[in-house]
Each structure stands twice: as structure tokens, then as C-alpha cells.
Amino acid sequence: MLTTNGTHYKVIGTRPIRHDGTDKVVGRAVYGGDVRLPGMLYGQVLRSPHAHARIRSIDTSKAEALPGVRAVTTAADFPSTADRRMDLGEEVVSLKYLRENILASHKVVYKGQAVAGVAAIDIHTAEEALALIQVDYEVLSPVVEVRQAMQEGAPLLHETVTTKELGEDTGRKSNIASHLHHQVGDLAAGFASAAVVIEREFHTSTVHQGYIEPQNATAMWSPDGQLTVWTSTQGAFTARDQIAAVLDHPVSKIKVVPQEIGGGFGGKIPVYLEPVAALLSRKTGHPVKLIMTRSDVFQSTGPTPGSYLKIKMGVDQNGKIVAAESYMAFEAGGFPGSEIGAAAMCVFACYDIANAQVDAYDVVVNKPKSAPYRAPGAPQAAFAVEIVVDELAEKLGLDPIDFRLKNAAKEGTRRVDGVVFPRIGCVETLEALKNHPNYKVPLKPNQGRGVALGYWFNIGFRSSVSASVNEDGTVNLVEGSTDIGGSRTSIAMQFAEVLGLAAEDVNPAVVDTNSIGYTDVTGGSRVTYATGWAAYEAAQDVKAQMIVRAAILWEVPADQVEFSEGSFLHQTDSDKRLTFKQLAAKLDETGGPVVGKGNVKPNSGVGGSFAANIVDVEVDPETGKVQVLRFTVAQDAGKAIHPAYVEGQMQGGSVQGIGWALNEEYCYNERGEMANSSYLDYRIPTALDLPMIDTVIVEVPNPGHPFGVRGVGEAPIIPPMAAIANAIYGATGVRLNKLPMRPDRVLAATQAQAAG
């Protein structure tokens, strides 16, 4: 296959069957809920019925006396350790708050926060025991909306939280945990030169990642202090580090065995159940299993933040954006640490703007602690910016894609947070969108077309891979990255490409934390990029060792052997030629096993990915219902290792964006209680709600990767909300500024416009 930079590939760019496909199709794949161990006990977690309350006391005696109950645990069983910051890959958390989020000690700050855990002979006994635990609460007033929480006199969630302004602690007690600020150029001068200035406010609701599989954990704490945890996690090492910190137990005595994962999207990076299962196992001497109910998943795990944004942008008479200002406040949930930092990096990143300013606030509210959700923070920011950009294009009488192209970020563009772009594919992605047939199809009455653009910066971090050559010429590839979207195969393909093997000749396996070098979380669009790079390095290691083995066989110096097209060749003697498989069969004759390794930490050169949408909708003027008629997504993948997987990521992110735009939200009452914590009431899109989604893979190779790879998992969720909002405007003449754009909101807006 010939790539855009002229490189020929044999494996990369093809579409082999995924290595784990058969096991998943026939039901052999083992998920966290499938783990069964001899003598296993079953656990349940008691959760707070209040959104905000002090815990006066917890009495577990009646529960412990119930026949069949083997142990009860509370926060009192946690060791006392000093607070410290922990980097989980997509977020940095406080150990103190991480522990409080696992089991509350003195206060609960959202309904559903865990208070105690029970282990019993069966799940029903454990559930019965929960009702016997007596918790004396002092109920406090909750605050569940970001602007209310920021007001003077709002109920304080934490007496110890003081606002950090630009990294400095002010000492001022507040629900505002931190204020970030980025600036470039002269904002006042930029706006003074503008011919058109638009300022708008926006609101987005709390939404959940919507993974099918609930959180789960099975733990076995052996008498010798060895702790083994089986869990569905996006990062076995990240989970291990959190467990070790919370329990003050050495990482050398903890083994995390990652199971197949039924979706995560960022939500399965934090631990919730694992330390509780471990404490219960230590108390009982038995393995203990915990699985959340669906209601627990909604009310007790991290959704993405609700937000308030104010965007102001100005353009000159030539259509150049000359100034942009953003005010963003994100709901962190019950503990500090929303995804506001990433939002501040991405908010204006799609455009070349000389004068810009961003003020971003992390605010605690009485909701579950927020967690990353696919490009965390960027969708909220893009929803606001892309609507304003569309309105500016309209004011200037410019085509919305042409206006974006005129202002698009390019190599050398400086982001407002100071990063200067390397080679990127923003322009190429927009051009692919403009040339798509979807952009030219005529529309009917009550139909509208919208476009939007989104950016995600991607991350690198640590990855390890090892590879052992079998005598039949196949290779066993061992890696530590949880496979969520087919990454086993995309990593195996990069290894195979180096050695001229078929993808099917590489047998990839995701293993436990004792069996591979440290590997960071599956998140941030890093796995195919970083772990793929580690596989590339492991393949180079194998190649170098095999060259030495060929030299031994031929009794020549190693520098006289070269590797080309899957074969080892003598530089001058054409009769000396061995394929990889032929040489693998002779390893015992030349020294024994060959094991290659690759370890990388690419913190620079990770590139970034842009995605753009065309969306056609039809709005029912009588009900306000929005029907998505056609949806196109273009995205720069750098180099699509497995195009089908890239298309799947593009389509999956788009579907989640459609749900976020039209249906999905956490609904709270005045007591801070979530009123729709089930899939009957929390509406994610089904196949009946969706059109076929057209995908256009753009390939602008990333110079920071051996094969030009860019991460692709995050960017496609960013533009759909704004694209749909812009399409609704095209159909109705009404610009909506609040998510989700439910039928009642659409209808109310159109009726208000008609009334005058």
C-alpha cells in the first residue's frame, strides 16, 4: 500500500480480522463479571441517600451479626497516610479525595457516595446487610449547578478547599478549586480592530460515558500480603498505583489482572470498588467480588462535567479572526479535578488567532466526581466556539467551511496555552469535508445543514512491549495496554510491518502488571501511537538479534547481513538468503530464544488530531423533535493502521456526540438526587435514532511517529454537538445555546421566535 508520504506498506493500511474477534463472537472472552474463584464471597456497597451531609457515626454491628455476613469495612479501615497528588494519565487527583470517593469518612458530597462495604456468602445476604448498617447523617443543603456553587454564600462542600489562582493558593475558602489563565497577544487591541464582534453564553449538562459493562472488581488478599485484583480497567498499572496508594501497600505486592472491558471512554480510569474488595478480602481470607448496579454506575462513578461558557470573538473586514475570549466554568463534582485544563488547551486550538485569552474555573458541586470522557473538556468548549464561529461566518456572508479554512490552524500556529503546532491536518480535514457530496445535496423545508470542527491534542506517556519468536516463525507479542477498540491488532500490525510478517503471524496478548513493563492508561488516544511505537522498537530489537543469528549460521560478520522484504540476505553472496520463518526454525542452532523488547515514553511529537462534521437534520415544527438525516465525519488519522478500526472510532465518537447533543443529561431535583439513573430514563441513541455515518479518513503523517500515526479515539466526539446546533439553526432560524437540545427546548425557542 502506498501512503501519502510515498512509503510502501504491506500490513499497515490493510484490514485483517481482529485477533480477539472469535473469542468475543462465541462468548469465550472473559470480562470482569465472569471471574469466579474458589471460596469467593460476594460484596455490596452502602451508598449515601443524601447529596450533602456530615457523617456523625456509622454502626455496623447489626450487619456484622447477620448470618452469612463475613465482613464489613468502612473508611476507618484505611491506613493514615499523607496526602499527595497522583497522575492517572488523563487527570491528576489528590490521594485524600481519591480515598474519600472510595469510602466516605466524615462527609458525603453526592448522593450515591460509598460509605461502607459488605462481604457475604451471596449477593442477597450482602444486600440485606446493607439495610442493617446505621449511619447517622446531618443533612446539609446541596448545590448542583456550577454558577450557583461559585456564588458568595453558597454551601461549601469542603472546609479545606481554597481557591488556587494561577497556581497560587489564595487561602480563600470557596467551591472554586482553581482558576487557570492563558493569554496571547493584545486582546483589547484585537477587539478594537474587529469589524464584527459576537459574544454568547452556553450551558452543557452532565452526561455519562454510557459504557455497557458496569464497574467490577474481584480481590484476593493472601496471608503473605500478596494482593491480586481482577478488574475491568483502562489501565492495569494505573489501577495498581491507586490501590497501592489508598491501601498504603507496596506495588510489588499487588498484581492487577485486566479483564476484557465492556467500554470505558475514560470512565474506567479511576478505581471505585477495587480497594473495598481488597479490604474485605483481607478481613475474610477469601476472594471477594463486587459489581455495581446500573443505578450505582450512574450515581456513583464519574460522568463528564456540566459547564457554563461565555465566548466572545471578533473578526476583521477580511474575515480574519482577530480576537477571542473564553470564560469557562466546569463542574468537578464532589471533589476538585474536572477536565477544565484540557478544555482550556483546546478551546481555540482549531484557529490561528493572534490575540486570545482563556479563563477557566474548576468548581465543586454535589454531583459524582467527574471523570474523563473521550476528549475530556474539548466537546463542551467546541460546542460554544463552533456556534459563534458559524454565526460570524453568517454575519460576513461567507461559506462556513471557507471561513474556517481562512482561519484554520497550521504548522507553526501558536495555541493560546503556548504550544506551537508541528505538522497538522486541520486544513486537509476541512478540505475533505468541503469536497464531500454531503455538502452539496439540496435540502427541503424544515431541514438544515451544519458544520463544526474539533481538536484533541493526544498524549504519549509510557508503554512497554515484549516479543518472543517461535520456531515456526510466528511471534508472541505481550503488551500492557487495555484493548478497548481493537488495539491488540493495530499494535501487532505495526510489529509485523517491520519484520515483513503477516498480521496473523503475530499473537498479541494483554497481560497483568507482573508480566510486562510499566504501561500507562488506555486513554488520551495514546495506545496505537505509543504502544504501537513500543512494538516498532521491539520489532527492531528482534530484527537486530536475528541478523546476528543469520551471521552465526553463515559464519560471517553481522555487518555483512541485511534485512529486506521479510528476508535476511548476505550483502555479496546471493545464495545466502533466509526468510524470517526459515531463520526462526534455526534459533536453537544459533543460541536459543530470541526475545525483543520496546520501551518508550514519547512526551513530544505526539501530534494532534482534527475532526470535522457535516450534519443534515430535519426539525418537526409541531413537536421540536430533531431527526438526524445524514452525518459525515472527516478526521486526520496521520496514518490509519487498520482503517476499519479508525472508521469505527470515528463512527462511535459521532454517535456519542449525537446523544450528547439531543438526548443525554443527568436530571437532578432540588435535593440533589439524580432522577434518571437507568437506561430507561437516561436516553442514549439506539440504531433507530441514527443515520448511516459516512467516514472520510484524512492522512497527514505525524512526523513524531515511525509510521506517522496520530491518535484517533478522542477527536470525533468533539464537533457533533455544535454541528447539530448549527444544522438546527439552518432548519429553524433559531440558535440554541444549551445541551441537550431536547424537543421541548427546540419547540420553545421556535415558538418564542415566532412570537416575536
What order do the helices and strands come in, and which of them pair?
Elements: H1 21-26, E1 41-47, E2 53-59, H2 61-65, E3 69-74, E4 85-87, E5 92-94, H3 95-102, E6 107-108, E7 114-120, H4 123-130, E8 134-139, H5 146-150, E9 162-165, E10 168-173, E11 176-184, H6 187-192, E12 196-204, E13 216-221, E14 227-231, H7 236-247, E15 254-258, H8 274-284, E16 288-291, H9 294-300, E17 307-315, E18 321-333, H10 340-346, E19 356-364, H11 378-396, H12 400-407, H13 426-434, E20 447-456, E21 463-469, E22 475-479, H14 487-499, E23 506-510, H15 527-554, E24 561-564, E25 567-570, E26 577-579, H16 580-584, E27 595-600, E28 609-619, E29 626-636, H17 643-662, E30 693-698, H18 720-732, H19 743-755
Helix pairs in contact: 10-11, 11-18, 12-13, 14-15, 17-18
